[in-house]
Design brief:
245 residues, alpha/beta, Rossmann fold, eight-stranded mixed sheet, 9 helices, 33% helix, globular, binds S-adenosylmethionine, SAM-dependent_MTases_sf, Methyltransf_11, methyltransferase
Length: 245
């Protein structure tokens, strides 16, 4: 199974345990004036829900290739498709948002498609949310999954150093990326379960995934005293570009 399509094997866990981006970061990359918005790689609709919760919510088209994920999206027009072939007319949308997903796309093809469907002056907002890797216990517990999946690959500061492919007429609105630190209260089982929602772990067989869950839970108990819940630090990084008028 390709790594990009592993999330649907645990779509319910993904939806329950992975948070969407912080609303402040979403507000910085998605103008309130946008009336038609594409949630690209919508997954189970975490971002779609956040957009629809806005006052005067726009029309949302949720584009997602995995039907097991897409089935959980509500309140939006659902389109089963990939970023590289958008089932949308030229210059038909005001904004595109993609959260924790850009690394799965063919950059050139996806950027060309986004440039095609955006109206002149439309915006592309990219977001990356994750447990904050600069907090040692968070990095250690998340590292249990990383090590089981890929060896001891260190986390990158994804998004901060990101550059959109050139030549498609986008102007960078965020030379200083948006960076929002926040926290979420989770039970210890939820934290260990979240570690098991990343693609590298989802590729493992069921017994190995169970072992990751138990090891993450144990490491959390070693590093963080007390009972449930635990305050888990997260970060959301955001970038925004405007399509040339
Ligand atoms: C980590 S999930 C992010 C889901 C959602 N945006 C969120 O923030 O929770 C990555 C999603 O990208 C989707 N995906 C993978 N390859 C894709 C592609 N080429 N085009 C569009 N979506 C893709 C996967 O199916 C998965 O739902």
């Amino acid at each position: 199974m390709p790594r990009a399509t592993t999330f649907g094997t645990r779509a319910a866990d993904y939806d329950r345990l992975r948070p969407g981006p912080h609303p402040d970061a979403l507000d910085r990359v998605l103008p309130a004036t946008a009336r038609t918005v594409v949630d690209l790689a919508a997954g189970t609709g975490l971002v779609t829900r956040a957009i629809l919760a806005r006052a005067d919510a726009p029309v949302v088209v949720a584009v997602e290739p995995d039907r097991r994920m897409l089935a959980r999206v509500t309140g939006a027009t659902a389109a089963c498709a990939v970023a590289e072939h958008l089932p949308l007319a030229d210059a038909s949308v005001d904004a595109v948002v993609a959260s924790s997903a850009w690394h799965w796309f063919d950059e050139q093809a996806a950027t060309a498609e986004i440039a095609r469907v955006l109206r002149p002056g439309g915006t592309l907002g990219l977001l990356w949310s994750r447990p904050d890797p600069t907090v040692p216990w968070v990095a250690e517990v998340r590292g249990v999954g990383r090590t089981a999946a890929d060896g001891a690959r260190p986390p990158t500061r994804r998004g901060l150093e990101f550059a959109l492919p050139g030549g498609f007429g986008f102007v960078d609105d965020t030379p200083e990326p948006v960076c929002v630190s926040w926290s979420r209260r989770m039970t210890r089982d939820e934290v260990a379960g979240m570690v098991c929602t990343y693609s590298g772990v989802l590729e493992l067989d069921a017994a190995a995934q169970d072992a990751v869950f138990r090891a993450a839970r144990e490491r959390l108990d070693e590093l963080v005293g007390g009972g449930d819940p635990v305050d888990v630090p997260f970060e959301t990084i955001g970038r925004r570009w405007t399509a040339s008028p």
